[in-house]
Write a structure and sequence with these properties.
5 helices; mainly alpha; 5% strand; disordered N terminus
Length: 148
């Protein structure tokens, strides 16, 4: 009995902490629907590469940084500049709660990403995009994806 209870508890805890991964092509379709293809000169492949290198397509990812700020969601949007998490000072340029970046509805994330790339630096605001996606062939990110 005790063993069954312990096993049930472990299974519940694993399910609670399970990552919420979005399919690459489902993300491409959503980004296309939200007019991200060509937005500020960035292709859907740029956005897919960014989502992969930042979060491995995990919409619920949270990462703590050395400066005490946190990165949230599929694009790992930083709490110091773009959203508020009430844990540290935030400029909150996207005017949203960081928790909004973690849900399955990615519209707040997309809206905030548009604000980020519209400013100085564009996608270069993401170090991982600079290191792994910039100036590289990215067309393979769209392989097998139907947007229609």
């Amino acid at each position: 009995m005790r063993r069954t209870l312990l096993l049930s508890l472990v299974v519940c805890l694993v399910n609670i902490h399970q990552a919420e991964i979005i399919d690459r092509c489902a993300l491409a379709k959503l980004l296309h629907q939200e007019d991200m293809d060509g937005f500020e000169g960035y292709s859907l492949s740029d956005w897919l590469c960014l989502a992969f290198v930042e979060s491995n397509f995990n919409i619920s990812k949270v990462n703590e940084n050395a400066d005490g700020s946190f990165d949230y969601g599929i694009f790992q949007i930083n709490s110091h500049y773009w959203c508020t998490d009430h844990q540290s000072h935030s400029e909150n340029f996207c005017h949203l709660e960081c928790q909004e970046l973690l849900g399955p509805n990615l519209l707040s994330t997309i809206r905030c990403a548009k604000i980020i790339v519209s400013g100085t630096g564009g996608m270069k605001n993401w170090a991982a995009w600079r290191m792994h996606c910039s100036d590289r062939p990215l067309s393979s990110w769209m392989t097998g994806c139907c947007l229609g």
